Here is the input.
Amino acid sequence: MKRASGILLPISSLPSPYGIGTFSKEAYKFVDFLANAGQTYWQILPLGPTSYGDSPYQSFSTFAGNPYFIDLNELVREKVLTRAECKAADCTHHPNYVEYGELYEKRFDLLKKAYKRSHISEDPDFQKFVDANREWIKDYALFMTVKKCFHGASWLEWADDIRLRWDYSVDYYYSQYPEEIEFYEYLQYKFSQQWKKLKTYANEKGILIIGDIPIYVAMDSADAWAHPDLFQMDEDRKPKGVAGCPPDAFSDDGQLWGNPLYRWDYHRHQNYDWWVSRMKHCYELYDVVRIDHFRGFDEYYSIPYGDETAVNGHWEKGPGMDLFRTLEHRLGHKEVIAEDLGMMTETVRQLVKDSGYPNMKVLGFAFDSTGTSEHLPHNYEKNCVCYTGTHDNETLMQMYDGMDKKTLAFTTDYLNNAHSTREEIKWDFIRLAMLSVADTCIVPMQDYLGLGQEARMNFPSTTGNNWKWRVGKEDLTKQLAKEILHLTKLSCRL
Here is the structure.
């Protein structure tokens, strides 16, 4: 990656009518904002359909797109919806926050109306899209259809015949629910249409998209249901172990993520076909891919299925460089960012180095009273991506406000900003990141706006109040773009 910079802002956080960010005209205006600010990258969170907890890192499919991101106004222009219908289904109660519960209740009914009026089965381009994506879309559409039949229950709780995918049962659901299955295919078609149009516009403006994928798939996903052979499951399709992280200074119980674990020996025997398909699909959506929890490729933490904490887990070996050599051989060189945060071992560090991928440094982790953090900019190497923060940690100003006296004293000394105003302090941090030796610098939109806890995206290991924050259209000013442009030029990132 060249010396450049970008902004982190999920699609859901864009200003947009009807309750959540979408591929609307406001998304195109944000691309214009990025271009005017001299940015090279727009980083987004995973684009997949969200499941329980609304996390983009727990998706019903690693291949499908989130129907919430479909621009309703575009469907109005296609005359399959009316503005009155869209307004009636509006879920906007506060312009800066998404109300996922109400969105779930209203949005799919509205999209179903659009589907029924679309006569999509008569569209030859739709049929071409389904055929081109047959490898995953049929299983996904069937999965979502059956899930609805079982009132949203996880596939692990379905009747045995369809849970175990007995042939006669699969045929039965295909024959009984053709319209429902086609509806989910239609949603993916519209998602793909609109996203590719937006990405093309961004690329033409000189903006590259950094996508984000979790290393694992969700347990309750079409991927796990349709391809149990890829995962550590028994004959009854029950997982043998699940993913997470061990206890540490932040959690006595560790983190229990619950994702199914890969059968890496099977993947290796198959020449990593599924991973090749997954990454190939990613590069149809993004220009650069950040892989979350890179450590799992070296060693992964296995927790017995059914445990309520991560205490009893153990480490097992991952595929290592064998996977990445195969991916490069079969797909050619691709841009990847290795998310190597958390407790790192020497073998993980070596894997990142051997891969050649840039790793991550986070300014929000840099400051403590010891002044010894590897995230302090004087410890960076060029081949890394410096973030002021991520979706999982505090905003810069939240971090600053929470500093104890010793940490604050060190930070003030390091930044040499004892006399800075609060507005200037925000820019002091960002300038530190932008002027660092790191080839790439990514700043969350919240940090450019100097926001605090109210704008935090996610509190790890919690549910119910995450992934909600949205930027206001009034925040994306010409003045802010001008200030970012100045700093971008100053740091030679343009």
Residues 14 and 27 are 7 Å apart (CA to CA). The first helix runs from residue 25 to 36. The mean pLDDT is 96.
